[in-house]
């Protein structure tokens, strides 16, 4: 409707312009013919006198005061060509006026176009032409435009409707396909992507890419739920078995105590597992984080003092002097905490935290330095080789030589989620100077303290 309305406005303007141009061309042609006639008749008067006016069609000769000197035989007496209010000045240019007069052969007045020209002797020559045919031509054109305008508008509206429908038909196809995908369980359905390079094809491709990402995300979430259910099933079964065992023989105080302690251990494991699941979900869906500039050496040193008594391991720090890092301190602390806890679960006694610019051999004089490399090494047994490809997957555990039974398999997954949120990467291997595992975290936007003056 909007397009049709705009088209109607443009069409009316165009038709009005056609009418105006056509009328102007008619008037120009009439005026041009009058000037030629006036010039020819003025030349004849100067040679033969005023009598030639009588033989000329629709012409009159006046004195300056308006007295008729000679009049064409086609003009009825008493019906002058020039109207009484015509402003004629001599000498001056030609004056064109519209007038009406009765012709000798007719009893009705006719519309005329009159040109008045001052002659050198001070007389005024008037020549006229009937404009009835021009008026008829204008009326016929106006009628034609009034008839043609609705037809043209209807044709334009139909064309626009068909064009819009054709342009939006791929959108309808996308909508129907999206409804089928939303209502059904067929994961193989895809959006119809045309080969044309236009906005619709780009929209379809974008939707297809989004569906692919959503499908991957749904698959991961389904696997996550299945893994979580599996992980919860075992401690719940053990917890239930221990409680049933204790209830089966309440008289055996020692047996009841053993069963309750085992149940308590499983309850603690369930609590840690639930906490890790909640933490993983929270960090993965967390929004923008608040960053600040940290003195990485001081931050790691203070962290080491806090966690040594908690995990019963020795934590040493080796950090490049003056190394700054713009990051979220809470997330960074959680990353290092999980890595130290992972080392403690592997029976490590010593953990070394090494922080340095990732491009240590390069000189960087910019305000923002190179990425920061944070290396966490321990003296534990290291990762089994078959575990390394899946080390950061959820519920992925090494064998008994690396972990105790209390691990949830989510510690490294949480680390990867946090590092990704900070815009960094993390890798794991066994190339540790202490003989155990080595986990390297790369974080962007490292900074150095400005050198002291002098």
Q: What key attributes describe this structure?
A:
17% strand; 3 domains; 8 helices; alpha+beta; 454 residues; Helix Hairpins; 51% helix; rod-shaped; 5-stranded mixed beta sheet
Commentary on this structure:
By secondary structure, this protein is α+β, with helices and mostly antiparallel strands. The protein folds into 3 domains: 2-136; 199-283, Signal transduction histidine kinase, dimerisation/phosphotransfer (DHp) domain (Helix Hairpins), CATH 1.10.287; 289-448, Heat Shock Protein 90. The chain is 51% helix and 17% strand. It has helices at residues 2-48, 52-55, 132-183, 199-248, 253-285, 296-311, 329-345, 411-421, and strands spanning 59-62, 68-71, 95-102, 109-118, 124-130, 292-295, 314-319, 323-327, 350-357, 372-378, 425-429, 438-443, 446-448. Strands 2-1-5-4-3 form a 5-stranded antiparallel sheet, covered by helices on one side. It has a 5-stranded mixed sheet with strand order 7-9-10-12-11, with helices on one face. The protein has a 3-stranded antiparallel sheet with strand order 6-8-13. Strand 3 and strand 4 form a beta hairpin. Helix 5 runs parallel beside helix 8 (411-421). The radius of gyration is 50 Å and the shape is rod-shaped.
């Amino acid at each position: 409707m909007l397009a049709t309305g705009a088209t109607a406005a443009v069409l009316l303007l165009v038709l009005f312009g056609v009418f105006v141009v056509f009328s102007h061309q008619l008037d120009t042609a009439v005026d041009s013919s009058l000037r030629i006639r006036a010039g020819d008749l003025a030349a004849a008067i100067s040679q033969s006198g005023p009598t030639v006016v009588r033989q000329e069609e629709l012409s009159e000769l006046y004195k300056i005061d308006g007295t008729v000197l000679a009049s064409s035989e086609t003009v009825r007496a008493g019906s002058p060509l020039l109207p009484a209010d015509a402003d004629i000045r001599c000498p001056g240019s030609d004056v064109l006026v519209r007038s009406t007069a009765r012709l000798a052969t007719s009893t009705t007045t006719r519309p005329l176009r009159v040109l008045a020209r001052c002659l050198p002797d001070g007389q005024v020559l008037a020549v006229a032409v009937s404009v009835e045919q021009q008026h008829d031509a204008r009326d016929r054109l106006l009628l034609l435009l009034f008839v043609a305008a609705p037809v043209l508008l209807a044709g334009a509206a139909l064309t626009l409707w068909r064009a819009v429908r054709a342009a939006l038909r791929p959108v309808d196809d996308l909508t129907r396909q999206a409804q089928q995908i939303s209502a059904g369980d067929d994961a193989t359905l895809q959006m119809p992507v045309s080969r044309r390079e236009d906005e619709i094809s780009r929209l379809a491709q974008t939707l297809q890419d989004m569906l692919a990402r959503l499908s991957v995300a749904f698959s991961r979430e389904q696997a996550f739920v299945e893994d979580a259910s599996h992980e919860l099933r075992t401690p719940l079964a053990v917890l239930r078995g221990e409680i049933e065992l204790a209830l089966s023989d309440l008289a055996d105080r020692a047996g009841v105590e053993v069963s309750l302690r085992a149940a308590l251990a499983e309850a603690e494991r369930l609590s840690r597992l639930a906490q890790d699941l909640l933490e993983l979900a929270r960090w993965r869906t967390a929004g923008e984080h608040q960053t600040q500039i940290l003195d990485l050496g001081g931050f790691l040193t203070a962290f080491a003092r806090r966690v040594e008594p908690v995990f019963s391991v020795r934590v040493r720090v080796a950090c490049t002097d003056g190394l700054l890092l713009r990051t979220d301190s809470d997330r960074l602390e959680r990353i290092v905490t999980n890595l130290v806890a992972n080392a403690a679960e592997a029976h490590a006694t010593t953990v070394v935290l090494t922080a340095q610019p990732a491009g240590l051999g390069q000189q960087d004089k910019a305000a923002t330095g190179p990425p920061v490399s944070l290396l966490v090494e321990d003296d534990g047994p290291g990762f089994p080789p078959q575990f390394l490809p899946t080390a950061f997957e959820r519920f992925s555990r090494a064998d008994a030589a690396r972990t105790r039974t209390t691990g949830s398999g989510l510690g490294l997954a949480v680390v990867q989620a946090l590092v990704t949120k900070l815009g960094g990467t993390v890798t794991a291997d066994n190339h540790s100077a202490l003989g155990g595992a080595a986990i390297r975290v790369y974080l962007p936007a490292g900074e150095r303290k400005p050198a002291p003056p002098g």
